[in-house]
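> forwarded from #structure-qc
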């Protein structure tokens, strides 16, 4: 937590915190006093006195009334007891039941005013598990903190209160006064205090709003700073190419580019031309035509005398991209190479030699391409397809080889803006938000898994009309082996059910050359139904396939389902997607309905984000999302947007770097190790 120098001391500096307590707190990542002060509650217990008529059944409430009857005390066994007393609250007799507090019998008197707290039973007019409350003057919301180990809530409350007593005065303002005024934000020390001890929910909201802005601003300053540094490190190469030759390539395509393709290509070309190193994300829905944009960028780079690399997640895709680039460049003097894990040793050595000699202009391979002992003559552009992030380690490998190419990431998972500017805030983003004309929407249906025979009859009709189908197998969580068995069983079942249709089986455990052969047969319509585990998820292009059946569809996120669905609808014919699922949860059902309602990847990804939250959106490993203390990037997306704009302006302004107004913010970034570090590469 930045801007807190005076609080940068171990927790035991606070009166009343000893070695044992400090040790316990370290389990919760609380090491310093500032950690403690900024360890915020995740909810509050509301001890404000409520009116009986507004209280819900089963709600935890505090009530106030006059004691109406003598307490009745009963013991159970040796230690357990139950004390009941009737209290007149707002004209009703409410029974308060106290467990294991026998001493109250002596303290509660008839006619006395009593404030008590517990769980309300509306039907029986009872408050169970009651405790006696004394009236408090300074707020009635008590903080509840996430706990670990054997730390007790009461202890933590005490420690935090102690920290405020001794160190609360050290919390310094980070934000310039102009910003506080502009957004009417609470001062930092107040916000911190009231996040622990709000007097009412409105005060909590104001305190939170302030801290959310601060957190998101710091985060976006970091992102914008990284972005600026990448752009301004002039160690990239300015590429120049023959504009006419590039234009000819585009004119010779069998279609004209959509406006969106045109726009993103212009953005990419501007990066290639500039001396900055490109660090750009290209997002576009499945089938929006990213490949040809990538090809044009690679061609520009080749015309500028540089080599290009296209990296994809699977061998199958590498094959396909090799084929499509070869056909795009068939009349042009562009040498295309392909490196695959299954290439023969000799072949491989030849390819590597050609790469090093500059005899290959564009190399295509899996993401391992960069990591292997591959030498380039003059690598100028790296494009990675269907991968969320080009890892830091990959960039390091390149740098260690003395290579500083422009880098473009392509993804077919449309990323909602709030995530894009969080996970990719340090990058430039280009978006293809338009489909080539004439695309038919894929008709999508949701059915129970036991309708498989009907589905198979439908597939048979489609195959008789010359089309093909994918059937994605049931998923067994965490077990690749069982998934494979499922695929084998399902394949056998379909073969038996439709003996006249040629079926193929594909799963991750097949040797690479076998996979390749099966894909080849499917591409050439020698196989009509491809039964497969999810290995066909990304990028595969067989335009003649018109049916996609997905088993256990509810187990997938919307983004992934949309990817799978995108394997069909790539040709001129009407295509269908059939989701076989019997979801039990509401969100599962909702996802299935959403799939049947829309074909728009951006809409789907936004809904997916809302349903599953940002963590699940990318999958944990690839998330690249920062841990937030108070902000929620989905809920607080408006603030995120504002913080981003403010951060961008600040980073670009002279004042941010020179003026004392910003020194606390600058210092905060420095303390986080952000300024003057080498984190970008
Ligand atoms: P993706 O964005 O999913 O990678 P592709 O680049 O594979 O999409 O393109 C999908 C299909 O659309 C390809 O067959 C491609 O030739 C075709 N295509 C791309 N751009 C256009 C366009 N502007 N007009 C018509 N068809 C296009
Ligand atoms: Mg693609």
């Amino acid at each position: 937590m930045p801007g807190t120098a005076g609080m940068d001391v171990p927790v035991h500096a606070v009166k009343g915190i000893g070695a044992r307590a400090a040790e316990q707190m370290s389990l919760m990542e609380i090491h310093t006093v500032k950690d403690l002060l900024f360890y915020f509650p995740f909810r509050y217990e509301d001890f404000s006195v409520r009116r009986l008529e507004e209280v819900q059944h089963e709600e935890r409430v505090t009530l106030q009334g006059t004691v109406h009857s003598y307490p009745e005390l009963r013991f159970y066994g040796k230690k357990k007891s139950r004390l009941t007393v009737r209290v007149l609250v707002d004209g009703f007799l409410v029974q308060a039941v106290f467990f294991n507090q026998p001493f109250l019998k002596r303290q509660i008197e008839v006619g006395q005013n009593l404030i008590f707290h517990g769980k309300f039973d509306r039907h029986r007019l009872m408050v169970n598990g009651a405790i006696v409350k004394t009236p408090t003057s300074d707020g009635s919301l008590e903080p509840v903190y996430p706990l670990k180990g054997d730390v007790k809530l009461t202890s933590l409350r005490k420690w935090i209160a102690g920290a405020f007593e001794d160190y609360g005065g050290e919390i310094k303002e980070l934000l310039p006064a102009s910003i506080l005024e502009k957004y009417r934000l609470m001062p930092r020390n107040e916000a911190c205090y009231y996040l622990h001890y709000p007097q009412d929910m409105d005060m909590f909201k104001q305190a939170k709003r302030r801290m959310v802005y601060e957190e998101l601003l710091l985060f976006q300053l970091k992102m914008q700073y990284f972005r600026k540094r990448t752009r301004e490190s002039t160690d990239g190469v300015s590429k120049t190419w023959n504009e006419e030759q590039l234009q000819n390539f585009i004119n010779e395509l069998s279609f004209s580019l959509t406006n969106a393709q045109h726009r993103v290509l212009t953005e990419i070309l501007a990066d290639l031309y500039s001396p900055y190193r490109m660090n750009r994300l290209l997002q576009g829905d499945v089938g929006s035509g990213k490949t040809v944009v990538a090809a044009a960028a690679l061609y520009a780079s080749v015309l500028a005398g540089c080599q290009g690399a296209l990296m994809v997640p699977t061998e199958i895709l590498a094959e396909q991209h090799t084929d499509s680039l070869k056909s795009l460049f068939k009349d042009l003097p562009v040498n295309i190479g392909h490196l695959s894990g299954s290439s023969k040793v000799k072949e491989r050595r030849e390819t590597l030699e050609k790469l090093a000699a500059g005899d290959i202009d564009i190399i295509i391979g899996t993401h391992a391409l960069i990591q292997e002992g591959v030498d380039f003559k003059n690598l100028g552009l790296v494009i990675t397809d269907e991968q969320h992030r080009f890892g830091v380690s990959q960039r390091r490998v390149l740098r260690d080889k003395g290579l500083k190419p422009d880098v473009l990431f392509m993804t077919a998972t449309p990323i909602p803006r709030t995530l894009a500017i969080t996970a990719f805030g340090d990058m430039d983003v280009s978006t293809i938000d338009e489909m080539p004309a004439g695309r038919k929407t894929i008709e999508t249906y949701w059915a129970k898994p036991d309708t498989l025979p009907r589905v198979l009859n439908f597939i048979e009709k489609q195959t008789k009309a010359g089309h093909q189908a994918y059937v994605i197998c049931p998923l067994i969580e965490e077990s690749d082996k069982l998934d494979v068995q499922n695929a084998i069983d399902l394949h056998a079942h379909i073969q038996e059910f439709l003996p006249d249709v040629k079926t193929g089986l594909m799963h991750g455990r097949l040797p690479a050359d076998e996979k390749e052969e099966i894909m080849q047969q499917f591409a050439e319509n020698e196989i009509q139904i491809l039964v497969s585990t999810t290995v066909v998820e990304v990028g595969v292009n067989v335009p003649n396939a018109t049916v996609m059946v997905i088993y256990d569809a509810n187990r997938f996120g919307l983004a992934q389902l949309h990817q799978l669905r995108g394997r069909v609808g790539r040709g001129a014919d009407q295509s269908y997607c059939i989701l076989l699922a019997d979801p039990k949860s509401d969100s599962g059902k909702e996802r299935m309905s959403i799939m049947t309602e829309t074909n728009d990847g951006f809409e789907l990804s936004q809904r997916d984000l809302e349903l599953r939250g940002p963590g699940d959106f990318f999958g944990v490993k690839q998330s690249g999302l920062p841990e937030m203390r108070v902000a929620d990037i989905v809920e607080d997306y408006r603030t995120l947007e504002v913080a981003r704009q403010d951060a961008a302006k600040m980073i670009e302004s002279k004042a941010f770097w020179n003026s004392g107004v910003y020194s606390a913010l600058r210092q905060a970034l420095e303390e986080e190790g952000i300024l003057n570090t080498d984190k970008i590469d």
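QC bot note: Residues 290-291, 385, 412, 539 surround magnesium ion (ligand 2) (CB under 6 Å). The chain has a mean pLDDT of 86.
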